[in-house]
Specification:
50% of the residues lie in helices and 22% in strands. It has helices at residues 11-18, 22-34, 51-59; strands spanning 3-6, 38-42, 45-48.
Length: 60
């Protein structure tokens, strides 16, 4: 089963918190979804399907 993250914030709030634009946040999340690393079933829930792929990205 995938790991689940329930977000209390909107994507706009996430972008503000990280000092990014909402476009950047959406682009990155869309790329992860396209690569099937994550799924986004609702606006406030992210399911992580390939944690190893995310960890590999963090190491680069």
């Amino acid at each position: 089963a995938p790991r689940v993250l329930d977000l209390a914030m909107s994507r706009s709030d996430v972008a503000d918190y990280l000092g990014l634009t909402i476009e950047t946040v959406c682009r990155v999340l869309s790329g992860f979804r396209r690569d099937r690393i994550i799924a986004i079933p609702t606006a406030h829930r992210i399911e992580f399907h390939h944690r190893d792929a995310l960890e590999a990205l963090c190491e680069t």
